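Whiteboard transcription, Tuesday session. T.W. wrote the C-alpha coordinates on the left side:
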Protein backbone atom coordinates (compact mmCIF):
# COMPACT_ATOMS: atom_id res chain seq x y z
CA UNK A 1 0.00 0.00 0.00
CA UNK A 2 1.43 3.44 -0.91
CA UNK A 3 2.49 5.78 1.85
CA UNK A 4 0.47 8.92 2.30
CA UNK A 5 2.01 12.35 2.53
CA UNK A 6 1.91 13.80 6.00
CA UNK A 7 0.47 17.22 6.56
CA UNK A 8 2.49 18.96 9.21
CA UNK A 9 0.03 21.77 9.88
CA UNK A 10 -3.21 22.91 8.32
CA UNK A 11 -3.42 26.67 8.70
CA UNK A 12 -6.56 28.05 10.23
CA UNK A 13 -8.30 31.12 8.87
CA UNK A 14 -6.97 33.10 11.83
CA UNK A 15 -3.41 31.98 11.03
CA UNK A 16 -3.78 33.05 7.41
CA UNK A 17 -5.24 36.43 8.37
CA UNK A 18 -2.39 37.05 10.81
CA UNK A 19 0.16 36.15 8.13
CA UNK A 20 -1.53 38.53 5.68
CA UNK A 21 -1.46 41.47 8.09
CA UNK A 22 2.19 40.82 9.04
CA UNK A 23 3.36 40.90 5.41
CA UNK A 24 5.36 43.97 4.36
CA UNK A 25 3.72 46.40 1.92
CA UNK A 26 6.16 45.31 -0.81
CA UNK A 27 4.69 41.79 -0.64
CA UNK A 28 1.15 42.91 -1.47
CA UNK A 29 -0.13 42.30 -4.98
CA UNK A 30 -1.76 44.91 -7.15
CA UNK A 31 -5.45 44.58 -8.00
CA UNK A 32 -4.95 43.09 -11.49
CA UNK A 33 -2.53 40.43 -10.27
CA UNK A 34 -4.80 39.42 -7.39
CA UNK A 35 -7.81 39.26 -9.71
CA UNK A 36 -5.91 37.08 -12.20
CA UNK A 37 -4.99 34.69 -9.40
CA UNK A 38 -8.67 34.32 -8.55
CA UNK A 39 -9.69 33.82 -12.17
CA UNK A 40 -11.21 37.26 -12.75
CA UNK A 41 -10.39 39.92 -15.29
CA UNK A 42 -10.08 43.58 -14.42
CA UNK A 43 -10.43 46.11 -17.24
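and on the right, the sequence the group agreed on:
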Amino acid sequence: MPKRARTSHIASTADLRAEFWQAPVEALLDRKTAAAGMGYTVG
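Someone added at the bottom: The chain has a mean pLDDT of 81.
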